[in-house]
Amino acid sequence: MKKFGIMAAAAAMIATVGSGTLAQAEEGKNGGTLVIGTTQKARHLNPAVQSGIATAVPGTQIFATPLRFDENWQPQPYLAESWSVSDDGKSITLNLRKNAKFHDGKPVTSEDVAFSLQTVKDNHPFKSMFAPVTGVDTPDANTAVINFDKPHPAAFLAMSSALLPIIPKHVYGDGQDAKTHPANSAPVGSGPFKFSEFKPGEYIILEKNPDYFIEGRPYLDKIIIKNYKDPTSLALATDKGEVTMYPFLGTSKDIARLKKSDNVIVTDRGYEAVGPVNWLEFNTKNEYLKNKKVRQAIAYAIDRNFVVNALLGGTSKAATGPIVPGSPFYAANAEKYDLDLDKANALLDEAGFPRGADDMRFKLKVDYIPNGSELQKGVAEYLKPQLKKAGIAVDLRASPDFPTWAKRVSGHDFDMSMDIVFNWGDPVIGVHRTYLCDNIKKGVIWSNTQSYCNEEVDALLLQAGSELDQAKRIALYNQAQEIIVDEAPIAYLNILPYHTAYSKKVGNPPMTIWGAMAPMDEVFLK
Amino acid sequence: MNMVMMVARRLLHAFLLILAVLVLNFFLIHAAPGDPADVIAGEMGGATEEMMADIRKTYGLDKPIYVQLGVYLGRALQGDLGQSFFYNAPVLDLVLGRAGATILLVTTALLFAIFVGTSLGVLASHKPKGIVSGLVTLVSVIGYSAPIFWTGLMLVILFAWVYPIFPISNMFDITKDTGFFGYILDVMHHLVLPSLTLGIVYLAQYARLTRASMLEILSSDYIRTARAKGVAETKVYGHHALRNAVLPVVTIAGLQFGSIISGAVLVETVFSWPGLGTLAFDSILARDYPTVLGILFFSSVLVILANLVTDFVYRLVDPRIRTGG
Question: Does the pLDDT of residue A242 top 80, yes or no?
Fold first, then answer.
């Protein structure tokens, strides 16, 4: 069998069942309740039919996936104890563990894998994840062969975290719509923790699965996910010890407060796959922004260092392109658009927009996600005085809530808008959607709302999406990123300063590339 | 017959009021930009056009608005408050699951405000130019002016973090496995700061109102007569003066029941108190029409009941209303 590079090479491994995902894993101790605090409300607990952190954190404890990933982007066995890729790259064979059972005692079989994949394909918003899948063969109860119409390396990451939860066919195969199935609020999975109680908007209680397929795990007796309405109250509760883990901690002052605490450790590890980018997107149909030089000028006029260090208190890192620096596919050589006001002004002059009598060239509106506070509103407010230096007058348009903002942006009723978009591991899953010509879909948020279209970029992205050779893939994505960044449909600002604050009592905190959106079967309380 | 007519008239007014509340708010929330499909798409992390059309069809949002209103009212009249778009759970279950927490918070806050407020008002009226009266005035001004949100956060920082006497948030400690009485005590422990925060604004008003009312009454003829007859000062205050002075407080408290529920939204947010206030707030943001309307229905019923209770208490306190004299 050919070697396809790092990711697919690992596919040939028959790895040790029960191996850990953390390089520095400590020896665990049984018992205790982990209390996770969150401001995100879960609608329900089944990640097969939707994305989002709120569902992913509990969902990845309840449901197991074929694979899991470690902190070095390496796939590890999970429900699949081994796997192999065909020579032409168009099928992946998963060899499932024989001892995996759902929480109701029924065995996990290849039929469940086939059913789950079809359910995700039909219902999950990330259509690109399994679009090339033509079918799943199930030659026996412990073998599932996924067939693709072209090689699809994104499949590996798509088979981990919350992206392909293996749901029981005997529960969901009753003909009811998976999106509104009652089991979504009282799910049956095969993961390390089983469902106990769900009070929407208040708390979720999960209990240890005594029949978990990895012997000796999980260590914890219980996980409680508590909802807090206010991030400041949650930060105080974490400091006080009411909450033992606070993942997706993202406000700079709360990060600073908790870093000073004697009771809590704060880390920025565990968000490499999420890849959350804070950016300013341009409507390329706008009379001014349709000109590349105008977009580039705005990018040069923004001082990213100021945003990162002054506005966000140094808690965040700069983002310079569609893919985050932590990803193997990040293009380090693309233009960075470091602050250069002279260049910005020159570009605007060249574009044919001289300064008027009032010293301004033209006016643009900027929208932002409400409740995004310092990341969104704070940066939008900063744009006003900063872009004035390039002769662009900026008006802020506030939306009272998320649906109002989403309606405006998805309806292409905007000039420029602040936004937050996640990479979701493989670029095929979370990056392509922003740039592909055929994803300009009016009315759909987080599609290609910029109306950006470059056929060369399309071809490069699609080619990279089906290239199994990692080195070639990286080169293709590098080329695509260089073009995208040059054409500047978006001015990239920073990676969201997600941190996890956890009590010093927590051992083996979740620090793989998926962080808290991965099974916490290795986590324990000291 | 008179009693029956009165009750029937009251019931008819209540029905019409609730109907008006539902219809008006149905149109109001539909007027807001965006719909549940936009919210669900955002919450899901994205969607396709087909998915959004599917969501709209599932929830009947593709039908004309008058049809949607008709369908909703038809079901509501049969006791079916519908299914939450956001949580995919029956609205009645969601509302009943949260109503108790809000009623507990609001009632505790109001009773605290009435009893402590009127007591402070009585104390202040004893020596109107004294230190106690000045302090009561000062506390009233601060308590009334400070935004509830700020008061709540300050109390949390001071009494739950700097001096960790009380819990930071929630209604009870889910991590503890206590029996029934342990649970009651835990809830009471969690109730202190939120009810204090919510009650302070109203306490301030009732203290000032009682003080003013008492001062007016204490200068009236019948009080002078009672004193001349040698009635003990405590009985003059407690039995003669206070009964009249408290009437405006009772009236205002009854009228304010509606506003205290809306004040509860902010307090519930600061303290993550699992009540109707936060559910309403979240449901409006999520354009979860059935849940918003279900909560409004429920709170309308509560306000109507509160007004009935106010009437009843008024009659208890003021014998003139009882006898109609």
Answer: yes
